[in-house]
Amino acid sequence: MPLVNAKEMLTKAKAGHYAVGQFNINNLEWTKSILLTAQEMNSPVILGVSEGAGKYMCGYKTVVGMVEGMLEGLNITVPVALHLDHGSYEGAKACIEAGFSSIMFDGSHYPIDENIAKTKELVAICEEKGLSIEAEVGSIGGEEDGVVGAGECADPDECKMIADLGVTMLAAGIGNIHGKYPANWAGLSFETLAAVQEKTGTMPLVLHGGTGIPADMIKKAISLGVSKINVNTECQLAFQDATRKYIEAGKDLEGKGFDPRKLLAPGSEAIKATVREKIELFGSANKA
Ligand SMILES: [Zn+2]
């Protein structure tokens, strides 16, 4: 099945009280592991690409070529959206051009008027080309591509203003953070989430920084209107841990253990296990 935008899968998720996972990709192994697991679990899935990861993978066209090739080569039949994560205005335009099916425009660092103006313009382009678009209000804490922010709580009235522009999904800061959560983290602000949901109605809400949020908080967030959850760091940590064990056990020194297809296999399997666990937790299995 060719790439689809994220509108239908998220509308269904919001109505069905589950969430679709966005798993960020970094290379071929990441992409393959995520697609195979989504197919195995009959779950819709969103592949996230940050601007940094896009650059690393030799540009957005290379990413589109790789993902489209895999959908065909691996016989993937579940709905898959290819989504720009935390896009700049220019990055969003480049991804639309390159063939992504969904973009996020992160204008959360702009004053609200400028965020609205730029989001509005991109909404019009996405509508015309059939892409879905995510907007963000209230910056999400932690580090993403070198930008460090403290976890803010979004203003529900500003969320309503952005939602009314016709975006497909909305990321609202509710005290969530990218990367590992500090030991003294205050937790998600369900009060903010409930207020945002109240103002934005059927709009699918997005929870960034899904790594390390306890399962009960994830479930509560889904019950309060979160329909898309972003997972990135957790797959990286799983890959790192499995690869470290392989090397430390000296497996790369045995026989053809140096073969990259063997060397990267434990890490790839670890990504699969993480994605499987998340799809189960988010409730999107058998919702393709
Ligand atoms: Zn994010």
Rounded mean pLDDT is: 94
Helix content: 40-55%
Q: Roughly what fraction of the amino acids lie in strands?
A: 15-25%
Integer tally of domains? 1
CATH superfamily: Aldolase class I
Query: Can you count the beta strands?
Result: 11
CATH topology: TIM Barrel
Shape: globular
Heteromolecules bound? zinc ion
How large, in whole angstroms, is the Cα Rg?
18 Å
**Intertermini distance:** 12 Å
CATH architecture assignment: Alpha-Beta Barrel
Query: Given this structure, which CATH class is correct?
Result: Alpha Beta
Sheet having the most strands: 8 strands, parallel, barrel
Task: Describe the protein.
- The chain is α/β, with parallel strands linked by helices and 288 residues long.
- It has one domain (7-233): TIM Barrel, CATH 3.20.20.70.
- The chain is 48% helix and 18% strand.
- The strands form two sheets. An eight-stranded parallel barrel has the order 1-2-3-4-5-8-10-11, surrounded by nine helices. It has a three-stranded mixed β-sheet with strand order 7-6-9, with no helix packed on it.
- Strand 10 (205-207), helix 9 and strand 11 (226-231) form a beta-alpha-beta unit.
- The longest helix is centred in the middle third of the chain and has 18 residues, at 112-129.
- The termini are close together.
- The relative contact order is 0.17.
- The mean pLDDT is 94.
- The structure holds zinc ion (ZN).
- Zinc ion binds next to loops.
